[in-house]
Amino acid sequence: MDVTIIGCSGSFAGPHSPASCYLVRAEHEGRTWSILLDLGSGALGPLQRHVQPHAVDAVLLSHLHVDHCIDVCGLYVVMRYVPGGPGRDRLPVWGPQGSGVHLARAYGGGEADSLLGVFDFHDVRDREPVTIGPFTVTPVRVEHPVDAYGYRVEAGGRVLAYTGDTDTCAALDDLLTGADLVLADSAFVDGRDDVPGIHLSGRRAAEAAVRAGGVQRLMLTHIPAWNDPEVCRQQAAAVWPGHVELAAPDETHCV
Question: What domain of life does the native source organism fall in (predicted)?
Fold first, then answer.
């Protein structure tokens, strides 16, 4: 299993990266399976450098803020209007309750029903695994102002944990325990962003990974363009015993 960072900018697409999107791939039954964890603002363009969007096997949305989901509207255009058509059934999209209606409204116009006909929307439920080819994906409800989930992705004996957007919460223990790689929200800076219930800082991300136990690699992501990533890394490094990694667009990591 590997993960390609398509976008890792927090809150909006930054000058060097789209917003949240992670392409996860694994070999199974003679082909490569691909899933997306989020498809935020600006991500659809660079995604095409790595995979044909209509060839993705499923999309999993952590929550319905635009920096995590809005490019599903652009993916609809690809699925519906690419010459010759994608030649496939409806694309499965997993997300919080009401994701389909929310995105159909965001697309607007007279094609809302058509969008719902292109995608096969499913509501995720806390701790109820979803199987997609070689992947077992377990959604874990986390702490954010809206209905939000982290995803624990398992394939081939490896574990990728993606926090989505969250503050410190007990659910992170189950999400992160024993993960080979953790993609952790690090949007806040300690001493400046001390508002509870929204995001992790680098330090809080590292604390969560240490508390969960068995985490092999910690990678900070969802860092807004106004933050200095090195400050986030330093705050995490004060807690994390190993090397603190920073997500960067177009990089692929073996999990």
Answer: Bacteria
